[in-house]
């Protein structure tokens, strides 16, 4: 059974940093592109970032470019999102998503507020 | 950026009735269109991909159609568990994929 479990969310002040993790199981993690998608409170889905299977190609939405870094450790079956210079508008639930969006984690909540 | 516009924003339907949701792309996305269902407090679930292929676990009352710029999700006879928010997503030009704003299907 495919499972994606996010962690690392929490309350952070504007300008602060957080690192999200996504632990994957039930499939060959190293074979698949992975994504991060976020959802602000009461809002729709927002595509944030992606990384290819071996980690040498990445994508970022303009809204996070230069502030967020996606990475992965295929030996640990784990996806990461390092978030810096956080802004109130980054407040959202962050979902880890497998390749063709067929599996989603339950999300981890990030709140950016003073 | 390809803009995805969903309508209506909210659809009020009685159980057992048919629901028709629309998704329009600002330019052609061929059939590279997916639909997701999101129930309250839950993560989205892939419902339809390639515009009309139902994902595992969804019953035949869900169907998708369309190509190019106009797409439709139809729920033939709404059940209680179908009341949710539905999002469309185009993936024609990865990584420049985009989501629509969503349609909330609520009980009339």
Brief descriptors of the model:
heterodimer, A: 114 residues, mainly beta, 49% strand, B: 108 residues, 7-stranded mixed β-sheet, 4-stranded antiparallel β-sheet, 0% helix
Uncertain stretches of 5 or more adjacent residues of chain B? none
Poorly predicted runs of chain A = none
Overall pLDDT confidence of chain B: 96
* CA gyration radius of chain A, whole angstroms: 13 Å
Mean pLDDT value of chain A = 97
Task: Report on the biggest sheet of chain A.
Answer: 6 strands, mixed
Estimated structural class of chain A: mainly beta
Helicity of chain A, in percent?
Answer: under 10%
User: Which percent bin holds the helix content of chain B?
Assistant: under 10%
Strand residues, percent of chain B: over 45%
Oligomer: heterodimer
Order of helices and strands of chain A: EEEEEEEEEE
- Chain pair forming the biggest interface: A-B, 14 and 19 residues
Radius of gyration of chain B: 13 Å
Number of helices of chain A: 0
**Total number of beta strands of chain B:** 11
Instruction: Give the amount of beta strand of chain A, in percent.
Output: over 45%
> Strand count, sense and closure of the main sheet of chain B?
7 strands, mixed
Query: What's the shape of chain B?
Result: globular
Structure description:
- The complex is a heterodimer of chains A (114) and B (108).
- Helix content of chain A is 0%, strand content 49%.
- Chain A is mainly beta.
- The mean pLDDT of chain A is 97.
- By secondary structure, chain B is an all-beta fold.
- Chain B is built from no helices and eleven strands.
- Chain B has strands at residues 4-7, 10-13, 19-25, 33-38, 45-49, 53-54, 62-67, 70-75, 85-90, 98-99, 103-107.
- The model of chain B has no long low-confidence stretch (mean pLDDT 96).
- Classes of the chains: A mainly beta (114), B mainly beta (108).
- The interface between A and B is medium-sized, with 14 and 19 residues.
């Amino acid at each position: 059974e495919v499972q994606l479990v996010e962690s690392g969310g929490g309350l952070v002040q504007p300008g602060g940093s957080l690192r999200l993790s996504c632990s994957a199981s039930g499939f060959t993690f190293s074979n698949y592109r992975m994504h991060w998608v976020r959802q602000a409170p009461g809002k729709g889905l927002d595509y944030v970032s992606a990384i290819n299977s071996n980690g040498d190609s990445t994508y970022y939405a303009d809204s996070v470019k230069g502030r967020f870094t996606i990475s992965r450790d295929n030996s640990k079956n784990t996806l990461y999102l390092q978030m810096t210079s956080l802004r109130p508008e980054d407040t959202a639930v962050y979902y880890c998503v497998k390749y063709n969006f067929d599996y989603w984690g339950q999300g981890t909540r990030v709140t950016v507020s003073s | 950026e390809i803009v995805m516009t969903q309508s209506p924003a909210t659809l009020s339907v009685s159980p057992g009735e048919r629901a028709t949701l629309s998704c329009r792309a600002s330019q052609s996305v061929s059939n590279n269109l997916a639909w997701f269902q999101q129930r309250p407090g839950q993560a989205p679930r892939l419902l339809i991909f390639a515009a009309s292929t139902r994902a595992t676990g969804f019953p035949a009352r869900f169907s998708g159609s369309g190509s190019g710029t106009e797409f439709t999700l139809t729920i033939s006879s709404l059940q209680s568990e179908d009341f949710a928010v539905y999002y469309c997503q185009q993936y024609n030009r990865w990584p420049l994929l985009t989501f629509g704003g969503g349609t909330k299907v609520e009980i009339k």
